[in-house]
Amino acid sequence: xNVIFGIAQINPTIGDLAGNAGKILAIxxxxxxxxxxxxxxxxxxxxGYPPRDLxxxxxxxxxxxxxxxxxAKKLPPRIGVLxxxxxxxxxxxxxGEKPLYNSAAYLFGGRIHQIFHKQxxxxxxxxxxxxxxxxxxxxxxLELHLDGGQPLRLGITICEDIWNDEHFWGQRxxxxxxVANLAAASVDLLINLSASPFAVGKHQLRQNVLRHNVLTxxxxxxxxxxxxxNDDLIFDGRSMAWARTGTLLGVAAMAAxxxxxxxYNTEQQDLISFTDNQSSSLPDxxxxxxxAALVLGVRDYAHKCGFRQAVLGLSGGIDSALVxxxxxxxxGSEHVLAVLMPSPYSSEHSITDALALAExxxxxxxxxxxxxxxxxxxxxxxxxxxxxPPTPPKKISNRASAAASSWPCPISLAICCSxxxxxxxxxxxxxxxxxx
Length: 436
Prior knowledge:
By secondary structure, the chain is α/β, with parallel strands linked by helices. 33% of the residues lie in helices and 25% in strands. It has helices at 17-32, 58-74, 92-95, 166-169, 178-184, 202-217, 286-304, 318-331, 348-361, 371-384, 393-405, 408-415; strands spanning 2-9, 36-40, 80-88, 100-108, 111-117, 141-144, 152-158, 189-194, 221-225, 227-230, 233-236, 240-242, 248-251, 258-265, 270-276, 310-313, 336-340, 364-367, 419-420, 429-431, 434-435. It has a seven-stranded mixed sheet with strand order 5-4-3-2-1-14-15. It has a six-stranded mixed sheet with strand order 6-7-8-9-12-13, with helices on one face. The chain has a three-stranded parallel sheet with strand order 16-17-18, sandwiched between helices. A hairpin with a 7-residue loop joins strand 6 (141-144) and strand 7. Mean pLDDT is 90; it is low at 425-436.
């Protein structure tokens, strides 16, 4: 017998409960027509990861619980869905624990059937989960009841739960190993809901960790990762399916939402096929990988903050050229405005190079000479900072840079757009006066 699982690699917006639930529902409706028995979403998919101090708002937790129940009622009747969510720890005061759990809810038939809690809470690198969550305990097993056969036993893990094998790392970072416990409980398939941020080389490390778990315990594995940029983190997706032999059956898209169908055969007790509904291509070089992540970061920052356009200073140099190329790829050439700001010290080729780049990218340009404002700033500096001519060339150059950097901000405010910084010492994407 074949059982079809669905991977829903979604791009959630932090705090947008209705919008995130709508994405999950739309994919579940489509997958229900494809014969999917269980659809898996990423870690904290209902609220988006990382929700951070939103978790301290009691009303947000209450609204999330309501959104989960509403979603359960709206789902098609014949498909189950694992949804990443936050659950209250009702024993927190009694046991002296944190008030919440990082959880996965199994929704089926219009209601919430089971809740599974994350057991290993990372507090290193970009993670601070122990600040908000209590660790879960026990073995998280979901039994899928099949027609005329034994139930399929699924071991449910959440992100870090699968990253604590002492034989892979040489030591344990936590006392417990949830995957080993599930294997000892005779599960048929491992499932991991994840929100693993992008880093250069991280995808290969993930593959090594997952393959090691598969081969160590002789179990197939489904790994579903979040995609999208939230706050200062980029999530690259690339969800995966592994056969018990350690064979990688398929990888979902990088830096884009994706849906995939994975087939489990009960006679072979293994995952046997992987179908990517998007037919997405994956980056084939480290440079392409970094480019895809940068474009995703800029695009999501702009769209999730409600910006439709970007304005940037274009100098003809490599820094602003790179930022312009990223902004164009992220937002489209029709949504990017390049401002050229020649000063008394600008060379002719800085203008011609900038115009040539803008033409290649098909972005609009505006030339605003900054000699008048440079002269005004020079007068102010001379009077209030007691700087009199002759001034060293470096200070003159810095004055020109300051004059140039003062123009894009009012323009961005006037047309309500984002402002990518192009200074090599400040490689950030910023809204007017607000850096991320």
